[in-house]
Each structure stands twice: as structure tokens, then as C-alpha cells.
Design goal:
Elements: H1 5-20, E1 81-88, E2 96-107, E3 110-117, H2 127-130, E4 131-135, E5 146-156, E6 161-167, H3 170-184
Antiparallel strand pairs: 1-2, 1-6, 2-3, 3-5, 4-5
């Protein structure tokens, strides 16, 4: 039986969650409140599609940040990893859906991430400027090629990460980092 780092990392994370008594980080059915979350009427956690957030979405990140590549199989989300989390829609932060996100850095208590999509934007007029190809990976069940969306940087609480999907290859991460530096003027 062959073991790989992802399998080993998943086993360690599951064990740590069990020992810590925290719930497993799996996607929630859309609109179903999670126990122990802010689910009071009128709060973000009670609205359709926002049940997975521990608090209202703080808004997209607008500043500059240092990019880091530091994936580690320690059960915590780190820059360089693709994770699954609830992503609010741009036009209405009270609604959204679970999707894969590439973590690229930190800002205070938040992780900074880029939404991934399997939709190809290469033929789109702004596609080459707003998206960067990252290839295929286990974050997509069908192993479709993915792109990272550069023009929207998400702020994510580590507690709102549902599960880790994969570690992005170092060379692919630095392609994204170079594109972010060009797009946002980051370090």
C-alpha cells in the first residue's frame, strides 16, 4: 500500500480535529446552519448560502500584501494550499457558494485567497489580465484545468475553511504570485 503526503496529511488533520472536538470541515448543504455558528435571525449566518461563515464577510481585500508559499501538512490552512470555503458573490456578500480557493498570503487574522474556476477565460478580452492558468489538480473532482481569478482577493477566517484540497506546485504558485504583483503591485 503506497502512501503519499496528501493521504498522510488528511489522516493527521482528521485525527487532530477528532482530538480537538471540532467538526469536520466538509461543505454544508446550501443554507443549512452549522451548530455553534452565528445563526441568529437577521445575522449573516442565517441567510441562504452563508451558513458556513463564523461571522459576516469582512469584504474583499483592497491593500497590498506579501506573497508567501508555505504549505505544511499540519492540519491548518497555509499559503500555497488550495482549500474549500464559502465564497460570497461579488454583487451580494450575503449570498455565495462553496468553492476552491488558492491561499496566497495573510493580512492580520485573515488568510488571503483567490477564487479558482474551471471556466476557461483565455478567449475573453480581459481573461489574460484577470485570470492565470494553474493547471489540473485534486481540488477538482474531474481534474479539469483551473484558473485563479486575480482581480478579487478574498479575506478568509481560518475557521471558515471547510477542507484542504491540495498543495499547489511551487512553480505554479509563483506564476500566480508574479501575476498578482503585476495586477495589484504586491511585494
Amino acid at each position: 500500500m503506497a502512501l503519499n503526503f496528501r493521504t498522510l496529511g488528511n489522516a493527521v488533520r482528521a485525527s487532530l480535529r477528532f482530538l480537538a472536538g471540532s467538526p469536520a470541515r466538509k461543505p454544508d448543504p446550501k443554507g443549512t446552519p452549522r451548530p455553534g455558528r452565528n445563526n441568529a435571525p437577521g445575522q449573516a449566518g442565517a441567510r441562504a448560502g452563508t451558513a458556513g461563515l463564523s461571522a459576516p464577510y469582512p469584504g474583499d481585500f483592497r491593500g497590498t500584501a506579501a506573497l508567501r508559499y508555505s504549505p505544511s501538512p499540519d492540519g491548518r490552512p497555509d499559503p500555497g494550499e488550495v482549500v474549500w470555503t464559502w465564497v460570497p458573490y461579488e454583487e451580494d456578500h450575503s449570498r455565495g457558494k462553496d468553492r476552491p480557493v488558492l491561499l496566497v498570503g495573510n493580512h492580520g487574522r485573515y488568510l488571503l485567497g483567490l477564487m479558482l474556476t474551471s471556466k476557461d477565460h483565455d478567449g475573453h478580452p480581459r481573461g489574460s489580465r484577470d485570470y492565470v492558468d494553474i493547471g489540473r489538480g485534486p481540488w477538482d473532482r474531474q481534474w479539469r484545468p483551473s484558473e485563479a481569478k486575480l482581480n478579487r482577493v478574498l479575506q478568509i477566517r481560518p475557521s471558515d475553511i471547510r477542507r484542504e484540497g491540495a498543495v499547489l506546485d511551487r512553480s505554479q504558485f509563483f506564476l500566480v504570485a508574479d501575476a498578482l504583483r503585476e495586477h495589484h503591485g504586491w511585494k
